[in-house]
Amino acid sequence: MAPPSSPTPGLRRGAWLIVLLALAAMLAALGALAWRQLDAARQAQARSAAADRQRLEALEERVDALRRDVRAHTARMQQGEATQRLLREEVIGLGQRAALLEQSVQRLANPELDAARALRLDEIELLLSQGQQRLLLSGDADGARRAYALAATLLEGVPDPGWLDLRQALAQERAALDALGDDPRAVAAGRLDAVAAALPSLPREPAAEPAPASWWERMMGGLVEVRPSSQALALDPADRAAGLAALQLELTLAQGAIARGDREGLRAALDRVEGWMLRLWPASPARERQREALRALRGQPLSPQLPTLGSTLEQLRRQRGPG
């Protein structure tokens, strides 16, 4: 009996080709399935991120709305507090006016009070005018305060409620006058006195050592001495005495300008004082400090800065009318 014949090589190769094609198809199917799953996961993640962004934006919008509400409530509360404070002040003012009106009804029944009130208003006007002139002409802040205090005492005795606004204006002007600092003229005079007191202690010798002289300067030094004209000092005793007398005169003129309130005259006198300082004392840190003090003194005001000064007097004259 003959043995069975083996498959031909062509059939074996076809079988292996079919198997490889089947494996390739399976791998392609698996890859497509994995890609679809990965794409679905990415889309789901993108949708989740978009939803998170929407929720975050909505949350931020709610927070902004809450902040706007808080600001609006705060503004309404502040406005309410301001309104309550204004109403409280108006109620207090109305109470004061009602009390003054009641007093005026009780006191003005006597016709003799009209002449007494006119005389008292004349005294008040005189005191206010004196206080204003004391402050402007002589810088006497204490005298002005005393005059205004007497005027306020007299004004309290005027029973007419129509003068309540004048009382309030006088109270404001007195408060500004009490807050006023020292007399500017006294401050300027004190600073000038400090400079004048420091001048005698300035060093009379140059602070820095001169540079070594050259051979020709040493040879000619016994015959000729050369100094720059800008640094010429009054070394001769007679010249120095005359310079000190002129400096003292300029300091006196500066004090007079301060007493008069003459700012231009003060600046001119201080310029001359500085010129004599340069002639009488050599350059030194102490001299420069005194020059800086003089420059600061040039800008010192010589009259009190009180914008409300005289406002009560003007209101009193307007309220009393002509005559």
Automatic annotation (TrEMBL):
InterPro entries attached to this UniProt entry: HemX (IPR007470)
The keyword Isomerase is assigned to this record: no
Biased composition (Polar residues): 302-314
Residue ranges that the Swiss-Prot or TrEMBL entry lists as coiled coil: 49-76
Residues covered by region (Disordered): 296-323
Keywords: Coiled coil
Keyword hit for Coiled coil: yes
The protein, known as: Uroporphyrin-3 C-methyltransferase
